[in-house]
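ok trying again, last paste got cut off:
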Amino acid sequence: MRAPVLLVCLLSVLLPLFAVGAPRPAAGESLAADGRAGVVRAVQGLARVRPDGRQRHSPLAEKDRIFPGDLLLTGGRGAHALELALGPGEVVLGPGAQAEVLAGGLRLLQGEAEVRGTAAAPLTVTGPGGFEQRVQGTLWLKAHAGRAEPLAEEPRWLKGYRAASGNEWMGALLATIDGREVPLVVSRYRADVEVRDQIARTTIEQAFRNTTDQRLEGVFVFPLPAD
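nice, full thing came through this time. structure:
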């Protein structure tokens, strides 16, 4: 008889009660009207942009516009990801990524990314070491130590990002079952917030259900907001 097992994860986070930076203009005009290269579809954790010719970085949010020459950066520690719509194509940057926006494509400078293009409108992706490819399907790419190279399989952080995308603040537990990483179902979720001196201390309790008859091991992914 299978006995369901609950795995409980406790997470305590200190979050300041103020917003940092001003949002960039929301998307609305056509590409031809404002010269943008694309828009931000989703942000997990921390993502920033440094516009061409500027010295300061600004936080990115959903529906922000991005332009050719923008330098995009994601947080390096924790669950961070930035999902973009570049014309008809799509790009997802992983933790610790740096990328420059191009007209009709992207230059990956550091970290990992998923790039999707179509046969009708391929995305041009470049990287260190002279890497360049017109993407008409799906490409997983890694830039590290002065060179860029394709990845043979979907990165682990991307699986965690997609598992949490239904409710990005729920977190996800990727368990290894029969050699595959499978997100477990959240059976219980509780959040308690205590506010003292302008600081919110948030304690989150999560339980994940194991529907197999074996002990499981996996990776717990929990995205944190900026700052």
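cool. Residues 156-164 form the longest helix (9 residues). Residues 160 and 221 are 6 Å apart (CA to CA).
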